[in-house]
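Appendix C: a fully annotated inverse folding record. The material below is reproduced so that readers can follow the format used throughout the book. The structure is listed first as tokens, followed by the designed sequence.
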């Protein structure tokens, strides 16, 4: 089915569905580690000599690798084509999940998780490019939000439930192997369905309407948002990945150091992160199609910071309050992430550099926010400020992101009159 301008709506919906499932599996493979590491039914910590706080460092190594790869391989996707980069990346990250289950030492686990990050990075940057190229301009926010929200749904909402259920019957080795398998199926489907920009009606897309040679590497940084978006995305990614790495430890640590919740209750509280993140990544980018990227991002940072502060002030006796506040922290934190890494990055791209631009923005956010921030937070958690200090660190980043986002230039097609 195509519209009157030649846009293939059928392809648009098919590719968004496949990207959504694939990015969901990225989330599952990435975020299941802290859950397994902190579960009382898992022997992983004892087998490899790890502490729950070490999950922050492991998440950081993966995030740094993800960021570098998102940029480098996004650039290669603009040169070599979308399938040539995307499909091998899906295969490799799936295999690295399987190999994580075979790790017999901390060193081996670090190597597998770093390679996983290298493979997952291009799924993010090239995925943004594929989604934008398939979308009508007025649906860029909606479609990017749809596929990006699956990382929260699979990784943080369903992931803890899947992990705890599997650990009832299987070892941690087997759990990693099970969750790695579906990605291999998605790689085949993506190879069959993904279309290169030259095969699409690209008149309605950004960054792809002319050959890549028409824009130099330095042209990528001409747009104001190419400089502002990476800086503020660091704050969004720092917030959510510090929370993802430190939350289980904070919830289950003895009162004084944490909230002293039992593992089952902590797992239920953690579901708020995944559910809130999923809704935020879907709803706010879609809303930004109407109210604008800048306003949606600023509001997201402000509301996430306020909710996180009140979460740190809530005691263990109020499950409902903890869950609700964490829900809104995740909703608005992930919302800022999705808007900046998706439509804002895409709409700042020069011709032929769509995946490169998305990759550069994601690189900055992942390397510092998703990589260094959890490592710093892990050090804070082990020091005099403890686990709550790590959460204050995340909240401070969100406040900084709020102020930096004020310098964004509005690019939503409905707001700037291009549709």
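Designed amino acids, in order:
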């Amino acid at each position: 089915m195509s519209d009157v301008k030649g846009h293939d709506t059928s392809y648009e919906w098919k590719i968004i569905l496949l990207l959504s499932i694939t990015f969901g599996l990225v989330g599952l493979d990435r975020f299941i580690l802290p859950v397994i590491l902190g579960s009382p039914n898992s022997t992983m910590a004892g087998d490899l000599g790890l502490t729950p706080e070490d999950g922050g460092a492991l998440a950081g190594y993966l995030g740094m690798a993800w960021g570098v790869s998102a940029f480098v391989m996004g650039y290669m996707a603009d040169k070599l084509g979308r399938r040539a980069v995307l499909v091998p990346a899906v295969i490799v990250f799936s295999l690295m999940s399987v190999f994580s289950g075979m790790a017999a030492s901390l060193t081996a686990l670090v190597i597998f998780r770093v390679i996983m990050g290298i493979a997952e990075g291009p799924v993010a940057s090239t995925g943004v490019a594929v989604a934008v190229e398939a979308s009508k301009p007025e649906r860029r926010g909606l479609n990017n939000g749809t596929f990006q929200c699956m990382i929260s749904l699979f990784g943080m909402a369903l992931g803890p439930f899947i992990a705890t259920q599997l650990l009832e019957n299987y070892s941690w080795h087997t759990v990693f192997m099970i969750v790695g398998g579906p990605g291999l199926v998605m790689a085949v489907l993506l190879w069959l369905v993904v279309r290169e920009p030259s095969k699409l009606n690209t008149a309605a897309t950004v960054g792809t309407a002319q050959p890549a040679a028409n824009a130099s590497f330095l042209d990528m940084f001409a747009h104001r948002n190419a400089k502002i978006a990476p800086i503020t995305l660091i704050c969004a990614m720092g917030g959510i990945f510090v929370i993802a790495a430190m939350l289980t430890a904070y919830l289950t640590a003895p009162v004084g150091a944490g909230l002293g919740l039992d593992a089952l209750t902590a797992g239920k509280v953690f579901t708020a992160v995944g559910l809130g993140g999923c809704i935020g990544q879907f709803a706010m980018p879609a809303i930004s199609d109407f109210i604008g990227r800048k306003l949606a991002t600023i509001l997201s940072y402000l509301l996430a910071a306020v909710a996180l502060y009140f979460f740190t002030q809530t005691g263990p006796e109020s499950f409902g309050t903890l869950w609700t506040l964490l829900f809104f922290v995740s909703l608005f934190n992930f919302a800022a992430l999705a808007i900046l890494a998706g439509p804002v990055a895409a709409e700042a791209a020069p011709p032929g550099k769509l995946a490169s631009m998305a990759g550069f923005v994601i690189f900055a956010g992942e390397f510092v926010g998703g990589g260094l921030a959890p490592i710093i937070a892990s050090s804070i958690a082990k020091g005099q400020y403890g686990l709550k200090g790590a959460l204050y660190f995340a909240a401070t980043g969100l406040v900084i992101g709020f102020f930096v986002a004020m310098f964004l230039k509005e690019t939503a097609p409905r707001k700037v009159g291009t549709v």
